[in-house]
Specification:
This protein has helices at 24-32, 42-51, 97-112, 127-139, and strands at residues 3-5, 14-17, 57-61, 64-72, 80-88, 117-122, 143-150, 163-169. It has 175 residues and is of the alpha+beta class. Helix 3 links the parallel strand 5 and strand 6. Helix 1 packs across helix 2 (42-51).
Length: 175
């Protein structure tokens, strides 16, 4: 589903759509510009665009990729959408783009799948993501629970923080 929306702040056209194979390199560059997100290989982003396009979204402003949410449905949890990464270009932050992408993605996935839950992991120092998902849960009138999914020592000697699992929902299967 592609949707063109009114301007974010500057009167530019915002388009939300599924990623395409040709977006892989641009996704890699966007993630690189969005610390503290973990940067993966261009190949990984190409695979996401190919294999998980129906459960992901990209945002373009006047043809430039400025946001993305990559997500998938875990094979053992067909009623859950797992959000892997959310990225908003620095020049577009603070304008609600992350929330708009989440709403767009959830609406599209609810049409295709019988989702009850949205899950993501967030490291404790990533306050922007914490605020995005807790606000989103409130706006959706959904619960939000958190538990530790990966402890810091699960990442070995990398110095990576723990990753907390945020579980949002449940939504009615009829929603």
């Amino acid at each position: 589903m592609t949707r063109t929306l009114s301007a974010i702040e500057t009167g530019q056209l915002l388009t939300l759509r599924q990623p395409q194979r040709s977006d892989g390199a641009a996704l890699h560059n966007l993630i690189a510009a969005c610390p503290p997100l973990d940067l993966n290989s261009i190949y990984a982003y190409l695979l996401l665009c190919l294999h998980h396009a129906q459960t992901s979204v990209v945002a373009e402003v006047d043809g430039e990729l400025v946001g993305t949410i990559t997500a998938y449905i875990p094979p053992q949890q067909p009623d859950s959408l797992f959000v892997w990464q959310v990225a908003v270009a620095p020049q577009q932050r603070g304008q609600g783009l992350g929330r708009r992408m989440l709403q767009h993605l959830l609406a599209g996935c609810m049409e295709q799948h019988q989702l009850r839950w949205m899950e993501t992991t967030i490291s404790p120092s990533n306050e922007a993501s914490n605020q995005l998902f807790t606000r989103f849960a409130r706006q959706q009138d959904a619960g939000c629970s958190t538990t530790t999914l990966f402890a810091a020592n699960d990442f070995g000697e990398s110095g990576h923080e723990e990753e907390r699992l945020y579980k949002i929902g449940p939504w009615s299967r009829a929603a």
